[in-house]
Amino acid sequence: MELLEKIFANAKKHNKRIVLCEGTEERTLKAADIVTRDAVAQITLLGNKEEIMQKAKALGLKNIEKTRIVDPKNHENKDKYIDALVEIRKSKGLTRVEASKLIEDPLYLGVMMIKMGECDGEVTGAMHATGDVLRPALQIVKTLPGISVVSGAMIMILKDNKFGEDGILVFADCAVHPDPNERELAEIAVATAGTAKAIVGFEPRVAMLSFSTKGSAKHALVDKVVNATRIAKEINPSINIDGELQADAAIVESVGKSKAPGSPIAGKANVLVFPDLQSGNIAYKLVQRLAGAEAIGPVLQGMAAPINDLSRGCSVEDITSLIAITVNQAASK
Ligand code: ACO
């Protein structure tokens, strides 16, 4: 079975509650219709009910009436949520007046619904920049215990199956943390190995990427990757990881053998951890565009609840896939 088929099949077994904050957005509505029809997830749409139902009718979407619709401006739990938000952000001095405004913002309401146990996960971002989607999540849901950094993995499905795990590689961080320090980079590596195992279902072989392989160059940026590799092993001694490796040494067997002989990872990595967000984000977009790879995600990792951000250029299929992934993440919690 193809990877996405497996992810959808598993999602149907769990049918978790997923909130879509951009309830009036056309691609979001179409995706909500499909996943409701196929019982992949129980969908909550945020937005004005009348507007949503009018759009659904105009688009000929028959299943939107089976979703739950919550209007951020007017719903039964509004006061309860405002009180809870003030409590969560009291150390930051959030006032009730400020919280009353924030709770009318669907991006804050969606995260609060997860925090209050009304939903299991969120998929948003068809109309909003990544930072705007992530900020409420980072402020309210925060990170998993023992994790200090949230990051974003891309599942890259290549046309050429000689790379990675039968053509599949997991890249990170491609989405969140601009400039991780060595400890944060180590956490990103450990989290990405976890995502590869939990969502893609393979045994991770993690390469910590750099412009140097095993000391071929000397620079503070190389030291950061070497130290992050060591710290990742301290965090999780069973992790199968090596670095620093150049990208060719990580994924091409012959290059791996010549540049990093004896490495358990060189030439056969299926998880690539980039030294910072610039390299990770640029790399995934180049592989997607130049090599025609399918890029699924970003799958956010390290967050205390599954909240995933869409690209504003996303298709309906991208949204349905990310909903199914989010259900899988919620189920594996
Ligand atoms: N992990 C965990 N917590 C974090 C992280 C992180 N990576 N980054 C920020 N936080 C926390 C902060 O500690 C803070 O918590 P607090 O308010 O309880 O003290 C809260 O989040 C807000 O932090 P700020 O510093 O105020 O938020 P900032 O404005 O820096 O926003 C953000 C954080 C949104 C993640 C920012 O770093 C960002 O915009 N990253 C880049 C996103 C992006 O544009 N990605 C590329 C596009 S995605 C794609 O192409 C697939």
Measured between the Cα atoms of the first and last residue, the distance is 24 Å
Largest sheet geometry: 6 strands, mixed
Low-confidence parts: none
CATH class of the largest domain: Alpha Beta
Count of alpha and pi helical runs = 13
Structural class of the secondary elements?
alpha/beta
Name the quaternary structure. single chain
Structural shape: globular
What portion of residues is helical?
40-55%
Radius of gyration, Cα only, in angstroms? 21 Å
Strand content: 15-25%
What is the CATH topology descriptor of the largest domain? Answer: Rossmann fold
Order of helices and strands: HEHEHEHHHEHEEHEHEHHEHEEH
Average pLDDT over all residues:
96
CATH architecture of the largest domain: 3-Layer(aba) Sandwich
Number of strands: 11
Notes on the protein architecture:
With 333 residues, this protein is α/β, with parallel strands linked by helices. It folds into two domains: 3-142 and 304-332, Rossmann fold (3-Layer(aba) Sandwich), CATH 3.40.50; 151-295, Isocitrate/Isopropylmalate dehydrogenase-like (Rossmann fold, 3-Layer(aba) Sandwich), CATH 3.40.50. Helices cover 45% and strands 15% of the residues. The protein contains 13 helices and eleven strands. It has helices spanning 3-14, 26-37, 49-58, 78-88, 96-102, 106-115, 130-140, 182-200, 220-235, 247-251, 253-259, 277-290, 316-331, and strands at residues 17-20, 42-46, 68-70, 121-124, 151-157, 168-172, 206-209, 241-245, 271-273, 294-301, 307-309. Strands 8-7-9-6-5-10 form a six-stranded mixed beta sheet, sandwiched between helices. Strand 2, helix 3 (49-58) and strand 3 (68-70) form a beta-alpha-beta unit. Helix 4 crosses helix 5, helix 6 (106-115) runs parallel beside helix 7 and helix 8 crosses helix 9 (220-235). It starts with a helix and ends with a helix. 50% of the residues are buried. The model has no long low-confidence stretch (mean pLDDT 96). Bound molecules: acetyl coenzyme *A (ACO). Acetyl coenzyme *A binds at residues 92, 130-131, 134-135, 138-139, 143, 149-150, 174-178, 281, 298, 311.
